[in-house]
Amino acid sequence: MKPTDWNSIASQYSTIADARLVRVFPEAVRLLLDRGCSSLLDYGAGDGRFVEAWLDSNGGSAVAYDPAPEMRRMATSRLTRFLHRANVVGDLEGLDGRFDAVTFHAVWMCLKDRSVCMSCLHKAKQVLRDRGAFIASVTHPCFRDKQFATFRTSFAMENYGTEGAAFQVSMFDGERVIEFVDHHWSLGEMSRQLHDSGFAITELLELPDVEDAPWPRSFPWLIFVAEKVA
Q1: What is the 3-state secondary structure (H, E, C) of the chain?
Q2: Domain ranges of the chain
Q3: How high is the pLDDT of residue 144?
Q4: Cα–Cα distance between 112 and 114 in angstroms, integer?
Q5: pLDDT on residue 1
Q6: Could you confirm whether domain 10-228 is CATH 3.40.50.150?
Q7: Which tens digit of pLDDT belongs to each residue from 138-178?
Q8: Structure confidence by residue, pLDDT tens digits, 63-76
Q9: Residue 213 has what pLDDT?
Q10: Which residues, listed in sequence order, are joined to residue 170 by a DSSP beta bridge?
Q11: What is the CA radius of gyration of the chain?
Q12: Tell me, what's the pLDDT at 215?
């Protein structure tokens, strides 16, 4: 399987009615508000949908960071209405220690080896203030062999211990289908990476599928809540 080129599939990805929008994003916004966060960096922000949800919920500010130019273009268009409260960037220069929180939605699965994971986590930690919050959402590694309301994968659970293993993802919403490659990280390995990069996990949330989904009642989403400690 070839690595996913997010720049080339950006427009397709942004049109999918992903269940994350109603399951993961509202929960992540609640977690940020409960912690009194007002300044946010969304790491791997894509087309800016989570930043939009965050800014609609409060009077805070946000920076959307994404390496793909087409994703940044769409995020800029989406966030124009927030005037001086939002910014879209392609690098993290000059942002050290600026933010109450960093969000990391569906980024971990894009990273193919541990060194890349650690580099991203260190960059996320670097832009946080002391005791800043880190909130990461992933497709639940323990249920990757299940089909859910808006996605299914080719992952075989006998490969659970193979860190970084590539697998095919099909995302769909009843009208459109998009396919891309993700990488598997076990629950234990993601926990180790957080510890090794200077974060302490404070909470884990497992989120169910949408209520009317005909699929097995497993948990498609997992949220890590962590704090910068070193």
Answers
A1: CCCCCCCCCHHHHHHCCCCHHHHHHHHHHHHHHHCCCCEEEEECCCCCHHHHHHHHHCCCEEEEECCCHHHHHHHHHHHHHHHHHEEEECCCCCCCCCEEEEEEECCHHHCCCHHHHHHHHHHHHHHEEEEEEEEEEEECHHHCCCCCCCEEECCCHHHCCCCCCEEEEEEECCCCEEEEEEECCCHHHHHHHHHHCCEEEEEEEEECCCCCCCCCCCCCEEEEEEEECC
A2: 10-228
A3: 95
A4: 7
A5: 40
A6: yes
A7: 999 999 999 999 999 999 999 999 999 999 999 998 889 99
A8: 999 999 999 999 99
A9: 63
A10: 152, 179
A11: 17
A12: 63
Helices 187-196 and 114-127: angle between axes, nearest 10 degrees: 50
Nearest-angstrom CA–CA distance, 220 and 208:
6
pLDDT value for 214? 63
Structure confidence at residue 3 (pLDDT): 60
Residues with Cβ within 8 Å of 173's Cβ and at least 6 positions away in sequence, in order, are 16, 17, 18, 150
The tokens describing 8, both together, are 């080339």
Segments of the chain with pLDDT less than 70: 1-3, 212-217
* The residue type at 228: K
User: Hey, what long-range contacts does 182-186 have (CB within 8 A, 24 or more apart)?
Assistant: 182/4, 182/109, 182/110, 182/139, 182/153, 183/109, 183/110, 183/111, 183/112, 184/109, 184/141, 184/144, 184/155, 184/159, 184/160, 185/108, 185/109, 185/111, 185/117, 185/138, 185/141, 186/141, 186/160, 186/161
Rounded to two decimals, what is the model's pTM? 0.94
Task: Give which of 166, 147, 159 is closest to 209, Cα–Cα.
Answer: 147
